Amino acid sequence: MLRIGITGGIGTGKSFVSKIFKSMGIPFYDADKEAKNIMSKSDIVRRGLINAFGAKSYNRDGALNRKWLADKVFKDPEKLQILNSIVHPVVIQNSKDWADKQRGAYSLKEAALLYESGSYKSLDYTILIAAPLDLRIKRVMKRDEISEEEVLDRMSKQMSEEEKEKYADFIIINDEIVPLLSQVLDIHHIFLKK
Known about the structure:
This protein is of the alpha/beta class.
């Protein structure tokens, strides 16, 4: 079974494209969602976060203190790198274990930080979802109800689209002009043949 990664910058529509693949019955792993579960449930990650950031990483009831942790790491690139070094290896292993159990022609792993985390190295192919900058900004402003400046700040912390294109085996253009479904189906048929 082929292992395929799908990624894209904020506002490109990677989750929407992933839903199209899911609707065709392709086994699907949402790395960002699983990372949140792992941060809440994994003893290894819990110990790592408490050692790195202190007991306030978790609330008294044992739940991850998301807001506090986010405020602590997202303004400091070094702390964000520490957080990622604790969480990413566990998520990558979890996704490999999940993929081992799947059946069919291929499975799909969606991850915002597919290239940045290095998890693309354990995949057979990757798909990058791309969209024009102005459209991405509008989508995120509407979705998250934030200003253009806040969107641009978030984007500045991500790997550039140009850099991601160097790693991608396939690129799907999600610009609301080029038909999306035909691009997805073309790639789907390529994977079925392989």
